[in-house]
Amino acid sequence: MTPRFDLVGMVATDLPRTLDFYRRLGVDVPAGAEHEPHVEVALPGGLRLAWDTVETIRSFDPDWQPGSGGPRVSLAFRCADPAEVDRYYAELTGAGFAGHRPPWDAFWGQRYAVLHDPEGNGVDLYAPLPERPSPPG
Asked: May I ask which residue range the UniProt record assigns to the signal sequence (predicted)?
């Protein structure tokens, strides 16, 4: 057997705010999870997403320090259509979460936007742009 990618784990310095951010993106985080030291949810398709408090990580790795520099991980959420990219970006930034790149039509054929979760991780929103008709000729 070879290892199977199964979980994305992140460390949260403000777990309630971080879970609020992901709930607003539709991640089914159980009620009351913000009071736990470790939170894990199954995503469609079987991949799991988890968050640990700094204290939880330091309970088994006392010398743990957060990474420095820019975001070290980025998660991408596919939206139903370009309007949904715009709507989620507006809702999240309106709720006080950090927007990084407002929605734009990317040259690779997607409506795209970039936010940062409360820990500074990149969170991309995207949806395919409608097919453009080919010019006659």
From this structure: none
